[in-house]
Each structure stands twice: as C-alpha cells, then as structure tokens.
Amino acid sequence: MIQQRNFVTFLLLSLITCGIYTWYFLYTMTRDINTMVGDDGRTTDPTTVLVLSIVTCGIYTLYWYYTQGNRMKVLADFNNVPCQENGTSYLVWILVGALICGVGSYIGIYLFIKNFNNLANAYNISQFNQNNSSNS
C-alpha cells in the first residue's frame, strides 16, 4: 500500500528539520513512484536521488521534480486519473515561484503531492481489487 502524503506535514517537517525532511521526502517519493509506475525504463534509485540532491545543493532536485512529474502524468493519463500538471508545470512553479518570495515553489510542491495522492489512491484500490479477485 502506498502511503499518501500531506502537504502541511511536508511543510512543517521541512521547516522544523531545516530541510533534512525534504531528503527523506525525495527518497520515499522516488521509491513509491517507482512502485506505482513499474518498469517503465526510467526507474530511479532513491539513494542516487538523495546523494545527487545533496551533492548538487538541490539542483538535481529540480530535475527530479521534472522527470518524476512526467512519469506521474503518463501514469495518470494511462489510468484515467485526474492530473493536470506535468514535469514542466512543477519546474516552472518551483523556479518562478522562488522569485516571488518562494511562495510559488510551495504551490508546485503542493500540486505534486496532490497528484501523487490521486495516483496512490488509484494504485491502492487496484491492488486491493487484485488481491480480492485472486482470493476468490
């Protein structure tokens, strides 16, 4: 079962831990997106994401939002799950948002979490239905 995320929790824990929670967030989100998407040929190792995000002082994180956003959009379209944004949308919100007191960046992350939760819900329902049909 894929755990849904809460934006307010993300925001508060990121602030309280001075950004360390963000690394945990990237790691677990990468792991869960890989699980939901399956073998699409673009699987990313969560440890690699964590190391590259730290080594590049967050620059790799921008690329991560772009690539994972595109993976989520493809998955959403394939499964008819509502998702208006793609990787470019998140990247624009995060980059342009940084120029307006950082508020827009949080809008981008909020949208990312919202769409992730929609996909996680659909994935959990499909797994539940598969388990019930195999038990019958």
TrEMBL record:
Any Pfam family hit: DUF4234
Transmembrane stretches, start-end: 7-27, 47-66, 90-113
Taxonomy, superkingdom: Bacteria
Domain DUF4234: 5-73
Keywords assigned by UniProt, alphabetized: Membrane, Transmembrane, Transmembrane helix
Protein's recorded name: DUF4234 domain-containing protein
Species this chain originates from: Candidatus Merdivicinus excrementipullorum
